[in-house]
Amino acid sequence: MARKKLSRNAPCPCGSGKKYKHCCYHKGFDYEEGDDGAVYKSIPLTDDMKGVLEEQRRKFIEKHGREPGPNDPVFFDMPPLEHVEHQMVEAMKAAGLDPAFIYAYEKTGRIVTQDNQHLLSEADLDEWQNAIEEYERKHRRKKQKAPKYPIGTVALYGPDDRTTTKITAAVIVSDGAEPVLQRWVGTDVTTNPKVQRELQAFFQQHGVKQVAATEGNMGCPHEEGEDFPVGGHCPFCPFWKGKQGSNQRE
């Protein structure tokens, strides 16, 4: 049956809802259309895969005395597919692979790596990613460990999201306890050796077992209710208008 390349303006066969030219057209494979309108996925063979197929052809001829036909399985000497998948999963577990990766293989029947992503459709990649995320959602609670008290926290503040001028450290000695606070203010507060030593000593003094820190500034260094009215905006830090305190926008 003759085949021709699928039109770039046709709906992408992967099911994304996009046109082929805006979806899988630039992947490392082609979609082709037969005379009967059926769509086929054509993936170019690497030299290694060509060698594997030629070896399978030789084995088939040795066993059956003829060339393999279009209805003959390529890997005729393999055990049943379910046995192969089971052996693959056990090998993955023995190798210590991420359980989410193994789950996605069992769920989708494929393996996605950086080396083969270009050969997979957007729909296939989405299915794989959804399986990864599904595993993580199911096991997220199991991964969470009970907090170890006393807990230390470090929060950063500044006039904008890039300049830090205040560090607030807190120690929570038990569940529900009021935090013990200590603050440092300065233009070099994040790099000042004296501040770093005092912060470390503060946590050591209270026997802190684990520390949680913000990745960036949480807000301005001024305090609602002390430096500006509750429910208002800090008059000194216009960058944070509507982004912090009780006046924060959703």
Major beta-sheet overview = 4 strands, mixed
- Structural class by SSE content: alpha+beta
Rg of Cα set: 30 Å
Summarize model confidence as the mean pLDDT: 85
Count of alpha/pi helices: 5
The helix content is 25-40%
- Provide the succession of SSEs: EEEHHHHEEEHE
> In percent, how much strand structure appears in the residues?
15-25%
Q: Shape, please? A: elongated
Distance between the termini: 58 Å
Strand order of the biggest β-sheet: 6-5-4-7
Work out the number of β strands: 7
Any low-confidence stretches, pLDDT <50, length ≥5?
none
What would you say about this model in short?
The protein is α+β, with helices and mostly antiparallel strands.
Strand and helix layout:
Layout: E1 3-5, E2 30-34, E3 39-42, H1 47-64, H2 81-94, H3 99-108, H4 122-143, E4 151-157, E5 166-172, E6 180-185, H5 193-205, E7 210-219
Parallel strand pairs: 4-7
Antiparallel strand pairs: 1-2, 2-3, 4-5, 5-6
Helix pairs in contact: 2-3, 3-4
Key features?
5 helices; alpha+beta; 31% helix; three-stranded antiparallel sheet; four-stranded mixed sheet; 250 residues; 7 strands
Task: Characterize the structure shown.
The protein is an alpha+beta fold and 250 residues long. The protein contains five helices and seven strands. It has helices spanning 47-64, 81-94, 99-108, 122-143, 193-205; strands at 3-5, 30-34, 39-42, 151-157, 166-172, 180-185, 210-219. A four-stranded mixed sheet has the order 6-5-4-7, with helices on one face. Strands 1-2-3 form a three-stranded antiparallel sheet, with no helix packed on it.
